[in-house]
Amino acid sequence: MRVTNGMMRNNSLLNMQKNKVAYNKYLQQFSTEKKIQRPSDDPTIAVRALQYRTTLVEIKQYLSNIDDAVGFMNETENALGNMNGRLEEMATYCTQAATGTYDVEARKDIVAQLKEYSRYIYEQNANQDYAGRYLFTGYRTDVPLLFSEDQDDTTYTITEQLDIGSIKKYDYVYGQAEYDDAKSASDYANEASQFESTHRIQLSYDGCDKDGNDVTLTYTDKNGDTRTITAVTKSVSEDATYNEHLHPGDDEVYYVPETGEIVFGNNVYDDIRSGSDLSVTYQKTEFKKNDVRPEHYFNCTAVNNVTGVQALYKNAGSQAINYQINFGQVLTVNTEACNAISLDVARTIEDIENICNDIDVMEKNLASVQKRIDDCDEGDTETLANLNELKSQIETELALQKTVLTNALSGAITTCHNTQDKLNIAIADHGSRYARLEMTETKLGQMKLDTEDAQLENEGADVGESMVLFTEADLLYQATLHATSQILGQSLLDFI
Fold first, then answer.
1. Which range has the worst mean pLDDT, 15-29, 388-402, 411-425, 445-459?
2. The Cα angle at residue 339 between residues 333 and 440, in degrees rounded to 5
3. pTM confidence score
4. Cα-based angle 411, 337, 209 (whole degrees, multiple of 5)
């Protein structure tokens, strides 16, 4: 085969080009520390690089979600822990108070201290927000748990599920002797206070609407049949006899709007306590600042009495805020107030305050009667006898009411413990989710390191190896140049 100078020149140029490509390849690897510069250099490496980079972006987003979730859940845990601590202190305080005797100032201190505990629980912790989002309000993170100001332009129709086990025996003072200069000692004796018992349950609100729709109770009886009872609205201000609103007939149910109580007659209670699924529907328009907003606890309808706009609220207690924290994994980060924070504590404190206020009134009445006795003419034996009988009846009433206060304080201890039990369940649930979050964060951190290592292994060039290969390519290129110069430096004319 005849080999011409042109053929040798072309082959030499082709070989030099190949050497230059290798020379440039290893130079780029050494300079960029990357195996390839474009997908066409090695499609397999390119595809894997895309997969690793996508995985890293997802892992970083999950870690970002976890950072946000950790902050939210840390604040939630702090608030729950604070409330639990205050409930423990309240139970201890009520235990001490229930075993002592109190004058007016001591009672005021008791009520003031308990109210401060209650405010701390609801206003400073249950209503807490984190980065502009309220912790315990479910999906409505922009709506506070409590009313920020007095509200009286919207009527809420509230359906409240009641625990039949929460219907408690309640002791109260029935009847009250009141001063009237036309009354005799026997009249005062006939008005003597009695220590009575009934069964009642407190709604989550007092100051409910007196007028409007009838208040209905619905329950399932022991035979599985649904029963509906229309309660008799019994206003405290309309009592003809002291505490008449706590004194229903055997077949009656009283609804007391001012105090937010349902009081059961004996026969009705006997039927209900053997049933289940008790609920009551009632209305409330006037809310005070820092009252709990009903939509965060109950199924309810709110109608603006000015504009007529109606809002329907449902699913309180099932509004889980889920964060995606890993591939195919979501975690609920929130705890709803209705699942953790009972409203019974605030209502119990209000009840104790009302009992103390009644005692204050009785003590003032007793002091007033004592002054009348002191000012009475000693010769007016009939008036003195009447006043002494009245004094005796008021003293009896006062002693009975103090027993009611002791019972209420003892009941408050149970309420605090029951509220703690509910709160501790929520804390335990929160803690298990938080532990899972921490484990996931650790796992993602390891996955991130592993993926970064795999990405580096796939894309990264070994600098030492690249330097060796670059040196070899350089030597080969230089040798090629030298050999080519020797071959192409001669022609046919050199041999003629």
1. 15-29
2. 20
3. 0.83
4. 70
